[in-house]
Amino acid sequence: MTVLCGNALELRPSEPHDIPGLAAIRATPEVRARWRGGDDLVAEVAEDLADPGTHCLTIYQQDRIIGMIQWHAEEDPDYRHAGIDLFLDPAVHGRGLGTDAVATLARHLVHEAGFHRLVIDPAADNAAAIRCYTKVGFRPVGIMRQYERGDDGTWHDGLLMDLLAEELHDPSAETDSSAG
Hints:
Blueprint: E1 4-5, E2 10-13, H1 19-26, H2 29-35, H3 41-50, E3 55-61, E4 64-74, E5 81-88, H4 97-112, E6 117-120, H5 127-136, E7 139-149, E8 155-164
Parallel strand pairs: 5-6
Antiparallel strand pairs: 1-2, 2-3, 3-4, 4-5, 6-8, 7-8
Helix pairs in contact: 1-3, 4-5
């Protein structure tokens, strides 16, 4: 896969030299709360990058690592679709970079890889992520009850969202109605 260029960032195939930066972001309390992890996040990130079923892309802004976005495919022709997941450095939250990363990868998966459907599954209480994905065109499908176990050992709901190719839109092309 080549480098994918968004409006304010690049998605580059993850490489071993990205691991320390990605592990540092995964170690931040905000990211760790959602992505969890053990005592050796460097080893866990390396394991993620080595997984042949997952395509990891490091998110760069001005040559600085700000996160990772990954995707996987269901290749059975009767169910073919791709799933996306990502994390961003909390220092860049609220700037539209998550939306840019998701839109950039979604365009690639729809237009170059030929997927007609994409899915993403944020925690049901992750309002910021849900807003981000909605801006790209993802729609709620339904609540997946007791979908994932939290650090506290209790089960938490997830929200299944999907996007059909014809629903993909570029949030950067929209005008800001609040601008004066």
